[in-house]
Amino acid sequence: MRRAWGLELALWMVVLIWAGNYIVGKIGMREFLPQIFTCLRFAIATPLMYLVLFWREGKLSFGQVPWGRCLLVGAVGVAIYQTLFIAALKYTTATTVALMLGLSPISTAFVAAFLGYERLRRQMVAGCLLALVGLIFVLGAAGGSWGFREETLFGDMLALAAGVLWGVYPVLMLPILQRGSGLWATCHTSLAGTLLLLAATAGDLWLFPWETVTLAGWGALLYAAIPVTVISLLLWYYGIERLGSNQVMVYMYLVTPLALLLAVWLLGEQLNWLQGLGAVLVLAGVFLAKRQT
């Protein structure tokens, strides 16, 4: 019983850490360029993840890595997605980004159905349509009057693209997961993504005014690198080993509503009643689309 409560607490901690990433990410974007923040985050996190992998499994198994697929997944799921995610936090609200990423399970379902991994059910389509209506309410009713805001539209589109890519990422990972554990696959794809980021941002890293970064900026970076990427990853895969992926994935759906609450509480972001209704419709649509029949 004590071990079960400890596991529940650990998974709730993961939910809180990931929800807090939206808040801390906005703080980091006050001082860093998105591509530099993402590059440094994974440059710090990836070696630590390999240490965790060696500790948990006793080997790194580089010889069986499908590097071509890892480069693809690293590009989509690390280099591009993570940069779009953090850039979206720079240009729009954390509530919008949280809702956009909350739609990612629907993207996963549609991509999996398109590639033949999963059957597209009527319930899934209905959930997608419901979530889409909710998203229109969230974006269109911002600012207290109907109409999309030009000042956040760029960030909204970045968040939408990030949500789609985050949904594509698990499907692209499937062939790699057939060769090893989830932790093993995540480590090698993170390495591939980090190398791509280092190559793409070398010039920005050289020219960036590092002396302008405050303790708050460095703290945001370390939070994204260690609690969000390393500690949560360890707890997440431990939970999957003990409970199975289906039970653990339920906690993933708690991240979005908690992130919304934190954004309102800590950042002072506001949701009018139409946006609140839209948020409820988005979450209900995702639940409907992914509910087991």
Q: How much of the polypeptide forms β-strand, as a percent range? A: under 5%
Low-confidence stretches: none
Molecular shape: globular
Number of helices: 12
Number of domains: 1
Q: How many individual β-strands?
A: 0
The proportion of residues forming helix, as a percent range, comes to over 70%
Biggest sheet record = none
What is the gyration radius calculated from CA atoms?
Answer: 19 Å
State the end-to-end distance. Answer: 30 Å
Class derived from helix and strand content = mainly alpha
Topology pattern, helix = H, strand = E: HHHHHHHHHHHH
Mean pLDDT: 86
Question: Could you explain the architecture of this structure?
Answer:
- With 293 residues, the protein is mostly helical.
- It has one domain (2-290).
- It contains 12 helices and no strands.
- α1 crosses α11, α2 crosses α3 and α3 (67-91) packs across α8 (182-207).
- The radius of gyration is 19 Å and the shape is globular.
- It starts with a helix and ends with a helix.
- The mean pLDDT is 86.
Index terms:
single chain; 293 residues; mainly alpha; 81% helix; globular
Give a brief rundown of this model.
It contains twelve helices and no strands.
Please write out the topology.
Layout: H1 2-28, H2 34-57, H3 67-91, H4 94-102, H5 104-114, H6 122-140, H7 150-177, H8 182-207, H9 215-243, H10 245-252, H11 255-266, H12 273-290
Helix pairs in contact: 1-4, 1-9, 1-11, 2-3, 2-8, 2-9, 3-7, 3-8, 4-7, 4-11, 5-7, 6-12, 9-10
